[in-house]
Design brief:
The complex is a heterodimer. By secondary structure, chain A is mainly α. In chain A, 79% of the residues lie in helices and 0% in strands. Chain A has a single domain (88-306), classed as Orthogonal Bundle (MetI-like fold), CATH 1.10.3720. Chain A has helices spanning 2-29, 33-37, 44-54, 60-72, 87-122, 127-141, 144-158, 170-200, 203-210, 215-227, 229-245, 247-252, 258-267, 271-299, 301-306. Classes of the chains: A mainly alpha, B alpha/beta.
Chain lengths: 307, 329
């Protein structure tokens, strides 16, 4: 198990390294930041001076080496747009808000999606199953910004129970997290249902029933643990998605997260901030996949021992 | 063999299990009756799809829901009719009074729990104990099925064991609560020949020690001869002939039994082609009114087409459903 984790962590570092090369290259293909920094009437000499000041006149591989070297010292560079500010601290300032929203949205999709998925699988082809299908259909076809606005209208405007926007107390978190998580509730539910149906049909479930144990144990112990692999993979993906792609929800609820920062930085060709955001996103994706891999091994002994 | 104890533990009367599909009704088990004595082995023989496994699942009341349903009959286990019991009461019966060994050891154990966990769960159904006591009982259970170094095996997961070993564990689970009947549904089909023999011997040993009644489902007449005291031959959802092993091998009376026995290859004969029964069994969703074997039967007459034959007794304990046994034939 330890060996398994060490190998996975090593893979993760390699992946991060690859991402840093790609984003470094892409950012430079996207255009010249100096053009955004100087007024139209600036001379070629001005351009050369500014380039030299930012180190942009050096060959790319030197720039990259400097960049990586600085990263290892915890220095992600100074923001080009927000002058005088450290790129990493800009990103990290916004990060807790996004993390909080994502984790809570994930918890919502898991604690609602998983059990409902199990129940509709057990009650296949009954009214319960049909009701589940309707909820799933609604969830999958309702855009989260619209759901966000509706939730805001009902719970904040009509009943005045929850605040409309901003961040602060737990109450502020509820509406945006529900708006973000509900779409995934439907997906998690359908995924859990189909993998539960597969497991319910196996011989080992038949044997568990032959033993005379309760149906609850058959479903929640024997089946669920086997059926968890597919939804778990999906959790890894949606966690990454929540953290990096909740721009719309953040906008609707005025949630001071990382999404908006990323958009602004891209527009300003703020290399340092864009690179920091992307590397952080990559690290998050890699980390959530790493967690999923370790959980796989915990859930299924066959994975544990073959690596 | 173990015929000294005459007490009947299981009696099945006119059991019917149908599967209701959208467009048709499959009569998987269509009015079968048999009994099992203490310490006795009853073989149920027949080709694939004749209702053997559905019979077994009916005895445990584990017919696949919601399509499958036991629509009639009586299953008396130790004097009580299982069909009168509700689901909770039925759970008290499973594992403790009647249990089953499934066909394929590769898939019958849960891959994500270790052997100890799965055994202790089965043991705990009848009697809870502290952790240490349960482990000790699990070790005993493995020792009873001749698993070497049982203490170490408890920690193993199914994928770390061989097929034969897994089937022993399944056997240990089946007998863990000392049931009076176990159903073995082709338990050796998935094992290789040498392991098969060991496993069958093991079952016989356990039976001799505990007086267990075994229902042995198979399509292999060689295994029947080795294992069984009595045999029931199933064809298209019915038992067409039953009797002692000797009855069936020496004087098979139903043309289907005769054909089955004729199709067992013999080592001492040289043949170019193995014997086989012409045609296909009828669809269980569209059964003929007459004898179900009539289309494949070399002796069939008009009467066979018109009416299903009653059971004719050939001698005490030996009967068959065939018009040829009627005095008026």
């Amino acid at each position: 198990m330890q060996r398994f984790i060490i190998i996975r962590v090593f893979h993760s570092v390699l992946a991060l390294f690859a991402v840093s090369i790609i984003i470094f290259g892409l950012a430079r293909i996207s255009g010249d930041p100096v053009a955004m920094m100087l007024p139209i009437e600036a001379t070629d000499a001005d351009f050369a001076r500014v380039r030299a000041a930012w180190g942009l006149d050096k060959p790319l591989h030197i720039q990259y080496a400097t960049y990586v070297g600085n990263i290892f010292q915890g220095n992600f560079g100074e923001s080009i747009k927000w002058k005088g500010q450290d790129a990493l601290s800009l990103v990290l300032q916004r990060f807790p808000a996004t993390l909080e929203l994502s984790v809570f949205a994930l918890v919502i999709s898991a604690v609602i999606g998983l059990p409902i998925g199990v129940i509709v699988a057990v009650k296949k082809d009954t009214g319960v199953d049909l009701a589940g299908k309707i909820v799933a259909l609604l969830g999958q076809s309702m855009p989260s910004f619209w759901l966000g606005l509706m939730l805001m209208w009902v719970f904040a405007v009509q009943f005045g129970l929850l605040p409309t926007s901003g961040r602060g107390t737990f109450k502020h978190l509820i509406l945006p997290a529900v708006a973000l998580g509900y779409f995934q509730v439907a997906a998690v539910m359908r995924l859990t249902r189909s993998s539960m149906l597969e497991v319910l049909d196996t011989e080992f479930v038949k044997l568990a029933r032959i033993k005379g144990i309760s149906e609850n144990m058959v479903v929640w112990k024997h089946c669920l643990r086997n059926a968890l692999i597919a939804p778990l993979t999906y959790f890894g993906l949606i966690m990454g998605g929540f953290l990096t792609g909740s721009v719309v929800t953040e906008t609707v609820f005025g949630w001071p997260g990382i999404g908006l920062l990323a958009i602004d930085a891209v527009r300003a060709r703020d290399f340092q901030v864009v690179q920091s955001v992307v590397i952080l996103f990559a690290a998050i994706f890699i980390l959530s996949n790493l967690v999923v891999d370790i959980l796989y091994a915990y859930l299924d002994p066959r994975i544990r021992y073959t690596h | 063999m173990a015929m000294t104890q005459n007490e009947i533990v299981l009696e099945v009367n006119d059991l019917r299990t149908y599967i209701f599909n959208r467009t048709s009704t499959v009569k998987a088990v269509d009015g079968i009756s048999f009994f099992l004595r203490k310490g006795e082995t009853l073989g149920i023989v027949g080709e694939s799809g004749c209702g053997k496994t559905m019979t077994a699942l009916s005895l445990l009341r584990l017919v696949p829901k919601p399509a499958g349903r036991i629509v009639g009959g009586e299953i008396r286990l130790n004097g009580e009719d299982l069909l009168q019991k509700n689901e909770d009461e039925m759970r008290q019966v499973r594992g403790r009074q009647i249990s089953m060994i499934l066909q394929d050891p590769q898939t019958s154990l849960n891959p994500v729990f270790n052997i100890g966990n799965q055994l202790i769960e089965a043991l705990g159904v009848a009697r809870k104990d502290n952790r240490k006591g349960m482990v000790a009982r699990a070790v005993d259970a493995l020792r009873n099925v001749n698993v070497a170094a049982p203490e170490r095996r408890l920690e193993d997961f199914p994928h770390q064991m061989s097929g034969g070993m897994k089937q022993r564990v399944v056997g240990a689970i089946a007998i863990s609560c000392e049931p009076s009947v176990i159903i073995a549904d082709e338990p050796t089909t998935a094992l290789d020949v040498t392991i098969q023999l060991q496993y069958l011997r093991l079952l016989k040993d356990i039976q001799a020690k505990t007086g267990l009644g075994i229902i042995f489902i198979t399509h292999d007449f060689g295994v029947v001869a080795r294992m069984c005291d009595r045999v029931a031959v199933m064809y298209a959802g019915r038992i067409v002939e039953q009797g002692t092993c000797r009855n069936l091998f020496n004087s098979p009376s139903h043309p289907y039994t005769q054909a089955l026995i004729a199709s067992v290859p013999k080592l001492e004969e040289r043949v170019d082609r193995l014997y086989s029964i012409e045609g296909q069994p009828p669809l269980l969703s569209n059964l003929p009114v007459g004898c179900r074997f009539e289309p494949r039967c070399p002796h069939a007459k008009e009467r066979c087409l018109a009416e299903y034959p009653p059971s004719f007794t050939i001698e005490s304990g030996h009967s068959a459903d065939c018009w040829r046994l009627d005095a008026a034939w």
